[in-house]
Design a protein that fits this description.
288 residues; alpha/beta; Aldehyde Oxidoreductase, domain 3; TIM Barrel; 6-stranded parallel sheet
């Protein structure tokens, strides 16, 4: 994402937090007071969004003194970032900056945990995100997944075609849908189909789907589908994705199977944040 686009988002989020400005700082802090602030990790995790936040702060006229890069492994007490500038500006941005860093680092950390658990059983399997992201946070959430070692999957509806159950309920059957999407899509696009049972999986494979998503299949049901596809000579060259209620407790039961990708909405829609705080460590009156 371009810095100016991200900058607009930060301005919008900050205005939401202070629609008429920061009343407390307006009363207590003169405009000529500058300060140095540090952001400190209050819990361990994988750092994400620090590169992006750093660019935004620089664009807003603050000076970055020190910053850990995205992907850094944080311990409790680590200094994530140090920056300087107008004190009232720092306090105005405090909550927005902390919320973004804490949330995105939570996404990266949740992704890393799932990736580590999955690859213990299957080094080749990919752990992917979904589109279950907070509106306005799609780019940052997906980038946090990448930082955590995961696959970003589709960035939006404008990317790789994915034929879902509601498309089929409204429009064509599986065979017609695959044929129509393939005829109208670029040759660089793969065609993915979401299925809800083994019969649909077999139909999609026979119709030439590149990727089949097994939606809300148990590990046992997944194994049955994989064996069926192998018996029919349809497994080779076909990518199998499993999705639905997959978390740290059960991901290993899917990874041990012959699947290519495991997608989880939990890593973006409900991660535990990596808590952080902002501390003013120095202040001074700027020379005129």
């Amino acid at each position: 994402m371009l810095t100016d686009s991200l900058l607009r988002k930060f301005v919008e989020w900050t205005e939401e937090d202070a629609p008429q400005g920061d009343e407390t700082s307006r009363v207590l802090i003169d405009e000529d007071i500058h300060a140095r602030a540090t952001i400190v990790a209050k819990a361990p995790g994988i750092l994400a969004a620090a590169d992006e936040v750093g660019r935004v702060l620089t664009a807003l006229g603050l000076e970055i003194v020190q910053r850990k890069p995205n992907g850094s492994e944080l311990k409790k007490g680590d200094v994530v970032m140090t920056f300087e500038g107008q004190a009232s500006e720092i306090l105005l941005l405090e909550r927005t900056v902390l919320d973004v860093l804490s949330h995105c680092s939570g996404v990266a950390s949740a992704t890393r945990r799932l990736v580590d658990k999955a690859k213990k059983h299957n080094p080749k399997v990919r752990v992917a995100a979904t589109r279950k992201t907070i509106p306005g946070m799609r780019f940052l959430d997906k980038e946090a997944v990448r930082v955590g070692g995961g696959d970003t999957h589709r960035l939006s509806l404008s990317h790789t075609p994915l034929i879902k159950d509601n498309h089929l309920k409204i429009g064509k059957n599986i065979e017609e849908a695959i044929a129509r999407v393939r005829a109208r899509s670029s040759f660089v696009n793969k065609v993915e189909v979401e299925v809800s049972n083994s019969r649909e999986a077999l139909r999609a494979a026979k119709a030439g789907a590149d990727i089949i998503m097994l939606d809300n299949f148990s590990p046992e049901e997944t194994r049955v589908v994989l064996e069926l596809l192998r018996r029919k000579g349809l497994r080779e060259g076909l990518q199998i994705e499993v999705s639905g209620n997959i978390d740290e407790e059960n991901i290993g039961r899917y990874a041990i199977l012959d699947v290519d990708a495991i997608s989880s909405g939990k890593i973006t829609h409900s991660p535990s944040i990596v808590d952080m705080s902002l501390e003013i460590v120095k202040s001074w009156k700027a020379s005129t």
